[in-house]
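For the sake of transparency, this paper describes our internal protein records without simplification. The record that follows is passed on verbatim for readers who wish to inspect the format:
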Amino acid sequence: MTGTVRTSADLDVRRRRILFRSWHRGMREMDLLMGKFADAEIGNLSETELADFELLIEAIDRDIFQWLTGEVETPENFDTPVFRRLKAFHDHVGPLNV
């Protein structure tokens, strides 16, 4: 079971694959972090941003989690505008709406 609320019917094959991979990470916390971002933004990402996001979703879940939480500094090759958008997407100061 995924948590996606977005249909992939209007997406091209590349975006469908990225959306699927975002929701099937292996670590449920990362499914939620990557998947919710993909649900909201996949249709708006440029080709360059898609390439950056594809690179990011191939990284190890624990590494991405540590970068997002600031536990470990984000490596330069992953510290892209799309990564910063992902991080900002999950920067909440109040209760989360799940």
User: Anything to note?
Assistant: The radius of gyration is 13 Å. Residues 28-41 form the longest helix (14 residues). The chain is about 55% helix and 0% strand.
